Amino acid sequence: MAFDIENYPLPFARDGLEPYMSVRTVDFHYDRHLGTYIKNLNDLIAGTKFESMTLEEIVRESDGKIFNNAAQVFNHNFFFAKLKKDSGTKIPSHITDTFKDFNSEFKAAALGIFGSGWAWLVDDNGTLKIITTANGDTPIAHGMKPLLCLDVWEHAYYLDYQNRRGDFVDAFLNHLVNWDLI
């Protein structure tokens, strides 16, 4: 099975997240980064047992470069799929009832990542948790169900926010999460 960026369409117009995420960032992040991971994954799995697997199966059963690229395809697609500008929906009560202050706790996790990685809200066997993963790691590789993720690699925010990761996290939590999908 060959993967194609067309299999992972954006759920919003390219300018649909402005001013919180610019068209330039969307184009760069989606086309160049996700597109490159998809191309690399296709090249790496050609002629292997992974060629006929789903993306999730590849993530769960691979390691090394194949895992890295498959996980990044999964993570990026998951990130983009949950975005919507000013959805008008509040954080669901099952989340606010679980955390004392979800936004503060999620932001602290996102800012606590040294270097590149991801902040996640996951369901870990019926328990909601905020976790982080480094580089291309992903919760599905550890048996957890992702509900929300934030890409805190610099390519996700640097064009719009420079070194102000905290401002990006605030924009994400306050204006870009499609809480209807969480």
What do you see in this structure?
The protein is α+β, with helices and mostly antiparallel strands and 182 residues long. The chain is 43% helix and 13% strand. The chain is built from seven helices and three strands; from the N terminus they run H-H-H-H-H-E-E-E-H-H. It has helices at 23-45, 55-61, 64-81, 93-96, 102-111, 158-161, 165-176; strands at residues 117-124, 127-134, 145-151. The chain has a three-stranded antiparallel β-sheet with strand order 2-1-3, sandwiched between helices. A hairpin with a 2-residue loop joins strand 1 and strand 2. Helix 5 runs antiparallel to helix 7 (165-176). The radius of gyration is 16 Å and the shape is globular.
